[in-house]
Amino acid sequence: MWLKDSSIGRKFIMSITGLFLVLFLLFHGSMNICLVVDDLFGTQGYNWICEMLGANWYAIAGTLVLALGVLVHFLYAFYLTFQNRRARGNSRYAVETCPEGVEWQSKNMLVLGIIVILGLCLHLYNMWFKMQFAELTGIATSVFNPQDGSAIVKYLFTNGWCGIIYCLAYIVWLCALWFHLSHGVWSALQTLGWSNLIWLKRIKVIGTIFATLAVGLFMIVVLYFLGVNIGMLAA
Amino acid sequence: MDSYINIKVRVWRQAGPKVAGHFETYELNHIFQGASFLEMIDILNEQLIAEHKDPIAFDHDCREGICGMCSMYVNGHPHGPDSAITTCQLHMRHFHDGETITVEPWRSRAFPVIKDLMVDRQAYDRIMQAGGFVSVNTGGVPDANAIAIPKPVADEAMDAASCIGCGACAAACKNGSAMLFVSAKVSQLALLPQGKIEAAKRAKAMVAKMDELGFGNCTNTGACAAECPKSVSLANIARLNREYLCAKFKD
Amino acid sequence: MATIQDTKIITPEMAKIPAGPLAEKWTNYKDHQKLVNPANKRRLDIIVVGTGLAGASAAATLAELGFNVLNFCIQDSPRRAHSIAAQGGINAAKNYQNDGDSIYRLYYDTIKGGDYRAREANVYRLAEVSNNIIDQCVAQGVPFAREYGGLLDNRSFGGAQVSRTFYAKGQTGQQLLLGAYSALCRQIGKGKVKMYNRHEMLDIVMIKDENGEARARGIIARNLVTGRIERYFAHAVVIASGGYGNTFFLSTNAMASNGSAAMQMYRHGAYFANPCYAQIHPTCIPKHGDFQSKLTLMSESLRNDGRIWVPKKLEDAKRLQAGEIKGRDIPEEDRDYYLERRYPAFGNLVPRDVASRAAKERCDKGYGVNNTGLAVFLDFSDAIQRLGKDVVAQKYGNLFQMYEKITDENPYENPMMIFPAIHYTMGGIWVDYELQTSVKGLFCIGEANFSDHGANRLGASALMQGLADGYFVLPYTIQNYLSDQIGVPRMSTDLPEFAEAEKKVEDKIQRLMAIQGKRSVDSIHKELGLIMWDFVGMGRTAESLKEAIAKIDAIKKEFWSNVYIPGEANSLNNELEKALRLSDFIEIGRLMAVDALHREESCGGHFREEYQTEEGEALRQDDKFAYVGCWKYTGEDSEPELIKEPLEYEFTERKMRNYKA
């Protein structure tokens, strides 16, 4: 199968899964903005969306596809890295430099990816496990009502010093994600062949915009609650 | 203004493909900065010969930056610390008095060391043999002006075709990928109407051979294009991806 | 009838020149030559030594026809042969520019450019097939430069008044070679060509046929990686090993370019023709030090827009030499555009030999413009003013960049400095119309043979000749030889002839390794180069040549008694490779001097100071020297014997070459 056996096929899988995850991030990030809006204006947007994505077959299917996307992206990343290290051979250069124009993140995608995955695990435990998982299985995984996602999030980030640590952990995670995406998005487009002499520069800009947008949406929420928490602690 | 400098050269010495290599440091005095890097190595070799030691084996031929034979990794850069040049075009004015210069061979599994700084790059030839051509025999071809080709297209094909096959791309790549080399040839021929006919077949055959020979997967770090002595663009890699994916999906 | 091996005069019949009008000779030949049928082609092996334009195109084309080809290459890949370094372009009589070009005009320019010392029939054939070459290369995907309408662009080159030079940026040789290389790759992939990289031929194996006639049947080659001596059989051997310009040590040739293959042919009875015809290219970057390993050529195409000058006043030249002023500081009225002054009709685009001598003349008079006094200016300030910097950059950008990398001077701001350097050798192994040497079964193509350029080669004609030989001439003519070889079975390389040849090679290597003297190969080679440049260079005299011969004999003695080669013979050993080549360069250098001494006239690349007009132009002696001077090997320590091939011009009138009006 060429998607497994050819280098471009493997890269194609990485790009497609990567881009799919970026789209999901954009959706998820927009949804998260509701948290801030809800908190400011007392609306119930976030929980309404959560309800829509609750125990429905399409939400379950979506979750499974998403999980599959992450898994494939993850497994291929290790497979590719293993192959690449082998292609490099056993002898290393005594002097290594980063040539001009080569982004640091592009050479550290696996490390960044692992940080992202670790963050994701934390996130799944903090949020998803207490919301969709609890809702689906009916097991009470926290003191909160799984349908009141908004409260779960707010509690996590504004829970005194613990909240601050969580906020900082999320900030590190999001920074890693930004670096990962700022190379990942344009690299995916390049791998899909959407580049030429003119578009090469443009897709790099597009990649950065995408990464900033996706990560920014999440970041706003974290920073907002961090602010609220600090305000509360100060008071 | 060019003047004379004293330097130390730390060179990778390896007696053969299966022997472990090591660095050796040599002192060189009174080197003119107008000399080329390879001329400096010549002087070093003359010095070694005078001491009845084994001179450093290295590949070099045209010494004007076009044959692609020279292949030294100097101070962390394939072809050394200057842009858009081969090692033979590197001049000593890029180094200062008292500097220690580290010289290594290309290091990539597909380019095994033969001796010292000499590596075996026949893998690139094999990729070319797999499909880097237009299948026309000598004779019986149409007039050269029978097909007009827009100038921008011809120019872009020329830029891709300027690859000299030196191997700096794979040597610079942390993944040991040969994508820039393969994509340059695929691009050149896919852009021109004469080569378009076999474009899909060519892309598939050359990529398959590249993978078979153990080159790595491209992760678009761009080190290849940054270090390429002929400034071959990363856009060629995108075109190769496009050609290859289209060909595979058509199948 | 005397055979080619025991004659003193080579007749047109011996050279196999077809009868008939000039324009019909090649067609007549092709119509009547013998061919080999496809089934028999499969049974015939051909060795091709060299993978430059001639070698690669011949190997690929012969394999396409169905022969089994063994192709040898000294570098690590066939793509690195030195044809790759040709910059400017390739000539063809397409007349795409509608400026009056034709096959005849290309023929005429080439024969006139060669100072009427080439064979009419060969040159006409070259002009005839030139158009096919362009078609072939375009079909292979060679990205020639194009105009905005999408059609092929041309530029002008020295020695012609039409624009007939096709080019691919400043890398035409590279693109043409990669075209031939790709055709070769295709055949290697198909298994029709067996490629031997990093192999150097060290001898030709001769085997006598049933009539007692010696024929080339294989080669002895050294694997440069393992140092092993290997034997290879073939029904015919084709040598495409390039020129011997590196005899001068400093030349524009690549480091590995050598004349050893030519000397091996010569020692087996192939005639060495016109060895003294060496081309000095006028536009090279001047020498900058004793450690220098090679000279870098700046393309002749630069003379399209660049103007060559030196100061009018000697005191300005002195100040330039002292580094007190730069070229741009000298006002227009104090500049001597000496080519435009001396040759108003061709100006800066006179042929290479003329431009080189004119530069030497100015520098000899003290007008040189750099610290060594051995350089003239090539100035683009006019072109930049007329066309704008962008246009100039587009045309010559990569050359300017190359110049700046080497010299650290910006040619957009200060005129370039150039000086002549050895570039190409018109002389080479004598071949007949079929490109066969005077040895049966041994063919020689490309720069290695002597055939098409006479005493001087025009710019952009080397690529043309290499590809003409390889694509369109040899694949035909070799069949005329092979057609009666179809009954010859493949021979074992265990035959005594192979063993003997191998022994000879090993003995020579042992002899060299055993010297263990005090001097490095390069130090002796540099000494030889200096003698060649000073005494057998741009201006030669009887005295200088006699002195050269004596000095070269001394160098030979020094080499064979005092060279030091480190390492082992049976392993990778660069110094041994260089020593083997140098041993042949010494012989070639001597042969060049002997030929130059005997040729008491000035023609093309051979300028004898005794024979010049009052204005300093070359003076031919057509009544005495209108022949090809072929040298026959008579033994290691005896003088070579001169054989002449008279050049009877049936179709062209010999004139004094005139580029003034």
Structure description:
The complex is a heterotrimer of chains A (235), B (251) and C (661). With 235 residues, chain A is mainly α. Chain A has a single domain (2-87, 104-234), classed as Fumarate reductase/succinate dehydrogenase, transmembrane subunit (3 helical TM bundles of succinate and fumarate reductases), CATH 1.20.1300.10. Chain A has nine helices and no strands. The longest helix of chain A is centred in the C-terminal third of the chain and has 36 residues, at 199-234. Chain C has a five-stranded parallel beta sheet with strand order 5-2-1-9-17, sandwiched between helices. The chains are: A mainly alpha (235), B alpha+beta (251), C alpha+beta (661). Chains in contact: A-B, B-C. The interface between B and C is large, with 77 and 83 residues.
Brief summary of the model shown:
Chain B is α+β, with helices and mostly antiparallel strands.
Characteristics:
heterotrimer; B: 251 residues; alpha+beta; Ubiquitin-like (UB roll); Fumarate Reductase Iron-sulfur Protein, Chain B, domain 2; 2 domains; five-stranded mixed beta sheet; two-stranded antiparallel sheet; 9 helices; 7 strands; C: 661 residues; Flavocytochrome C3, Chain A, domain 1; Methane Monooxygenase Hydroxylase, Chain G, domain 1; five-stranded antiparallel beta sheet; 18 helices; 14% strand; globular
Q: What order do the helices and strands of chain B follow?
A: EEHEEEEEHHHHHHHH
CATH architecture heading of chain A: Up-down Bundle
- Biggest chain pair interface: B-C, 77 and 83 residues
The first-level CATH class name of the largest domain in chain B? Mainly Alpha
Helix proportion range of chain A: over 70%
Rg of chain A, rounded, reads 20 Å
Under the CATH scheme, which class of chain A? Mainly Alpha
CATH architecture heading of the largest domain in chain B: Orthogonal Bundle
- Protein structure class of chain B: alpha+beta
Give the neighbour order of strands across the main sheet of chain B.
Answer: 2-1-5-3-4
Main beta sheet of chain B, described? Answer: 5 strands, mixed
